[in-house]
Design brief:
By secondary structure, the protein is an alpha/beta fold. Helices cover about 35% and strands about 25% of the residues.
Length: about 200
């Protein structure tokens, strides 16, 4: 990952123009090591727009995960991306927020793509994955800090959106699915040590 890659990603995330999801996906491949658990894995390959029987998955990161006795196994992390220009949550009454249609869509796509890749033995064999449980949720990258909710929702909307995310993390994602904004991803990318693809 070069500094210029991070600058390009930041400019895409902060762009106010039309949705740029596909451009973001292409740049995110350079940051694949941020998209896998740190410390026990090494990137093998990152691919965007991966074909499945249920559609095209935005990003799949293949990694060699180290086990005991110098052994490793190939694992895949499946990610769904939505444009930074998307809202992540919208207000649902006076005291709560709910996922936006874009977030609902991302969740639905993510589970279908994961299930499709887990049932595709040909794809698994081609990529050296030995067991379907080695195809795992990565997460969702959607929106940015400025579009957590619509601007007219203000501070109260942001507070309710953060609470909605915490509840979703606790009850639905349960540590298996990460939900990041593009802004969060850029912050992690600039502070974590980025390993180059071998």
């Amino acid at each position: 990952m070069a500094t210029s890659d991070l600058q390009v990603l930041r400019s895409l995330v902060e762009a106010a123009a039309a949705r740029n999801e596909n451009a973001c996906a292409k740049v995110l491949k350079a940051f694949a090591s941020v998209l896998i658990p740190q410390g026990r894995s090494r990137i093998y390959e990152a691919g965007s727009e991966v074909n499945t029987r249920r559609g095209r998955c935005d990003l799949v990161v293949l990694a060699d995960e180290y086990l005991a006795d110098q052994e490793s196994k190939r694992v895949a992390y499946v990610w769904e991306l939505k444009a930074p220009q998307c809202c992540t949550f919208i207000l649902d009454g006076k005291n709560r927020a709910r996922p936006s249609d874009d977030l609902y869509s991302a969740e639905n796509q993510l589970i279908h793509y994961l299930k499709s890749l887990r049932s595709d033995r040909e794809w698994q064999t081609e990529h050296g994955i030995l067991a379907e449980q080695d195809i795992k949720f990565g997460g969702i990258v959607i929106g940015r800090s400025a579009s957590l909710v619509t601007p007219e929702d203000g501070r109260r909307g942001v507070r309710l959106a953060r609470r909605a995310k915490e509840i979703r993390d606790e009850f639905f994602y349960a540590g298996r699915i990460l939900l990041w904004t593009g802004t969060t991803f850029c912050g992690r990318s600039s502070t974590w040590r980025i390993r180059a693809r071998p």
